[in-house]
Design a protein that fits this description.
Layout lengths: L7 E6 L5 H14 L4 E5 L5 H11 L9 H25 L3 E5 L2 H11 L4 H12 L6 E6 L2 H14 L11 H17 L4 E5 L4 H16 L2
Parallel strand pairs: 1-3, 1-4, 2-3, 4-5
Helix pairs in contact: 1-8, 2-3, 3-5, 4-5, 4-7
GO molecular function, one term: ATP binding
Protein name: Thymidylate kinase
Family: Belongs to the thymidylate kinase family.
Length: 215
């Protein structure tokens, strides 16, 4: 009998794709069944990770982060998160829902920044200590729609985000990388049309989770 995948589900996608909304909806559904759930975000999720998040998200750090520094800060946050938070939660048979994880590095630092995918997979393996999500949802949006959502979010918040300020071609490369990942790992990764109505997206995610995990 084939073992069920880890109760570790990650959500990926470009900025403004709706990850946070769908994580909350899945969390609510699992909690309604009496399941223990831990929701986390990357970078972040630990005291160290939250400090690194502020550095990585600042709209105008001085001096500007180099691509190499950015990469290692993300990896440092992830390494701490795996050891301090994710593995202990999984050991308690708790569901872990994460807003981003290792695939973000392959998409943003690989596709976006141009680092070698082979190098990034090796560094991810070290940072994650071999941990891989049991299931990953990539919420996909055309660049124009993602940009419109980001513009609305910026009008509602005074906070800047360094990565959101990248040019359109950066996000096209990121999106293309996510599509490549979905083709490479179809058993783990589900590519979801994030432009559909919120309820439809949530129902599609729940159908996949309930089928794979036998809920």
């Amino acid at each position: 009998m084939q073992a069920k995948p880890l109760r570790f589900i990650t959500f990926e996608g470009s900025e403004g794709a709706g990850k946070s909304t769908q994580i909350r909806r899945l969390e609510t559904r699992l909690l309604s069944l009496g399941e223990p759930v831990l929701t986390i975000r990357e970078p972040g999720g630990t005291p160290l990770g939250e400090r690194l998040r502020r550095l990585l998200k600042e709209s105008a750090p001085e001096p500007a982060l180099s691509p190499e520094s950015e990469l290692f800060l993300f990896l440092a946050s992830r390494a701490q998160l795996v050891r301090e938070t994710i593995r202990p939660a999984l050991a308690r048979d708790c569901w872990v829902l994460s807003d981003r994880f290792s695939d973000s590095t392959l998409a943003y630092q690989g596709g976006g920044r141009g680092f070698s995918p082979v190098l990034l997979r090796s560094l991810n393996e070290l940072a994650c200590a071999g941990l891989s999500p049991g299931m990953t949802f990539i919420l996909d949006l055309p660049l124009s729609e993602a940009a419109a959502r980001l513009a609305r979010r910026k009008r509602e918040s005074a906070q800047g985000d360094r990565i959101e300020q990248e040019p359109p071609e950066f996000f096209e490369r990121v999106r293309s990388s996510y599509h490549d990942l979905a083709r490479l790992e179809p058993d783990r990764i589900r590519l979801i049309d994030g432009g559909r109505p919120e309820d439809e997206v949530a129902e599609g995610i729940w159908e996949a989770v309930s089928h794979v995990f036998g809920l």
